[in-house]
Amino acid sequence: MQTATADTGNRILSRLSRADLHLLMPHLSPVDLPLRKSLEVPNKPIDYVYFIERGFASIVATGSGGDAIEVGLIGCEGVTGLAVIMGANRSPNATYMQLAGNGLRISAANLRSAMEESASLHKILLQYAYVFMVQTAQTALANGRSKVEDRLARWLLMAHDRVAKNDLPLTHEFLGIMLGVRRSGVTVALGVLERKGLIRAARGIITIVNRKALEKLAGSTYGVPESELKRLFS
Amino acid sequence: MQTATADTGNRILSRLSRADLHLLMPHLSPVDLPLRKSLEVPNKPIDYVYFIERGFASIVATGSGGDAIEVGLIGCEGVTGLAVIMGANRSPNATYMQLAGNGLRISAANLRSAMEESASLHKILLQYAYVFMVQTAQTALANGRSKVEDRLARWLLMAHDRVAKNDLPLTHEFLGIMLGVRRSGVTVALGVLERKGLIRAARGIITIVNRKALEKLAGSTYGVPESELKRLFS
DNA sequence: AAAACTAGGTACAAAACCGTACAAATCTAA
DNA sequence: TTAGATTTGTACGGTTTTGTACCTAGTTTT
User: Fold this and answer.
1) How far from chain centre, in Å, is Cα B152?
2) CA–CA separation, A99 vs A162, rounded Å?
3) What is the model's pTM?
4) Could you tell me which of B23, B20, B27, B32 has the C-alpha nearest to residue B4?
5) Which are the contacts of A118, defined by CB distance < 8 A and separation ≥ 6?
6) Three-state secondary structure readout of B14-53
7) DSSP state of B64
8) From the centroid of its chain, how far is CA A74?
9) How do strand A29-33 and strand B94-107 relate by DSSP bridges?
10) Are A214 and A166 in contact (CB under 8 A)?
11) Chain B residues contacting A via beta carbons under 8 Å
């Protein structure tokens, strides 16, 4: 089994003190994170916690019925397994990769020991969990008060924040599931954004063309968790 | 200044070990919590953390614009100041009393010291924060996928869980703000519920008549955070 | 190269919801 | 008890979103 070096693309790992990193390193192993790979299954014990380096995951809430909606994104700025970080061992939400990438993972048990050993490690992980909580709250706000077009702009911005390129390999179908709207509703909304020159869409790929204008469109729905992240992880 | 006794209506305090309770008690002071009393102001440092004994508070997310929506309720089952518990000192969300009551409060500074001193105390508070996170995720789900009538049923159930009586003193206006819909939309939806015999509405008061049927109507949108709470705080 | 599959574009009527408005009912205070 | 304020009921046209369907265009498989 390979062991991770200190040289990582994950922004939480890269902010850890040398001591905290040494605490985790022996237990971290690199993993490939292909599209749709499941990181957490609703109501099943969480086995591993993932420090994502490239790509991002969707955290999806599902009701007791089958309907689902995304409540947040986690990429290289964060870590999955927030339930573990907060002392639970599972969550009713699903987590799976939405854009393929890779990362480092640690078993939930090993992470628990490490957090018990180091308060500073626990603290930094908790602060990220707090930022994610803000993200979820803002998602609730957007879902309740914004229209599809604005929510789509918001989602694209959050995705763009988490990838290096301007091309996002996404289908309308999955965007619809994430936003909780019809597939064809996404198609139409994307058409509007494209006609405004904010994006370009090809089969399976959306390209961010004018980010500033997207931010303007998303307006108040974008930026709150992002600035909290900046503030706490300056 | 009065000092709290161990005999409290707050379900978190009542689950603490004797030692943890003794750690907090010297710093807890009883407070009256009138309607609309502000417990947290967006982006201002949090001064006090409130263990609610009666009544409940709304946690409200506000965009950089003025629009707001409720992302969760906290009553005697919980505690406010989740940002503090998670190592931040403020939050972009507002928190204020939605149904008058009372509780015990502790300064954020004193709570921080107590949490540093006792890992078991910190753990129980974090587990509640996790439950609240699930509640927020479910709110995002309901906002995105359910219609006003169902969301209203969900809200009434969550409120009912947090009061002793069947009467909820609420105006349509405020319900509309919480749910992110028109005031008259609430009036109409309440009319539907009343005609179905699930509730009774008088000026400023909504009475829960048939809770079971309300749960059926809310369907999959109600119950997930509630069962997590039960599971973790058996 | 044909067939099968996946993704995207478009349409249309129905439903949900909004903004706005106004009047009736109820409560409060002078 | 009267004036004022708050709360609720109801209406109407307009916008947003939905459910469903069907067709086209790419992509993969055989």
Assistant:
1) 16
2) 10
3) 0.96
4) B27
5) A19, A20, A23
6) HHCCHHHHHHHHHHCEEEEECCCCEEECCCCCCCEEEEEE
7) S
8) 2
9) unpaired
10) no
11) 59, 61-65, 67-69, 71, 82-83, 86-88, 91-93, 116, 119, 123, 126-127, 129-130, 133-134, 136-141, 143-145, 179-180, 219-221, 223-224, 228, 232
Cα–Cα distance measured from residue A24 to residue A37, given in angstroms and rounded to the nearest whole number:
23
Reference B88, options A113, A125, A223, A117; nearest CA is A125
Distances (CA, A) of A153 to A99, A205, B28: 17, 15, 45
Q: To which residue do tokens 């991002």 refer? A: A56
The tokens for A172 are 């309308």
**Protein residue nearest nucleotide C21, by CA to C1':** B184
Could you report the per-residue pLDDT of A17-50, keeping only the tens digit for each?
999 999 999 999 999 999 999 999 999 999 999 9
Q: Do B136 and A133 touch (CB under 8 A)?
A: yes
| A64-106 confidence digits (pLDDT tens) | 777 899 999 999 999 999 999 999 999 999 999 999 999 999 9
Distance from C-alpha of B10 to C-alpha of A151, rounded to nearest angstrom: 38
SS (H, E, C) A28-45: CEEEEECCCCEEECCCCC
| 8 A C-beta contact, residue B53 and residue B104 | yes
Separation between Cα atoms, residue A52 and residue A233, nearest integer Å: 16
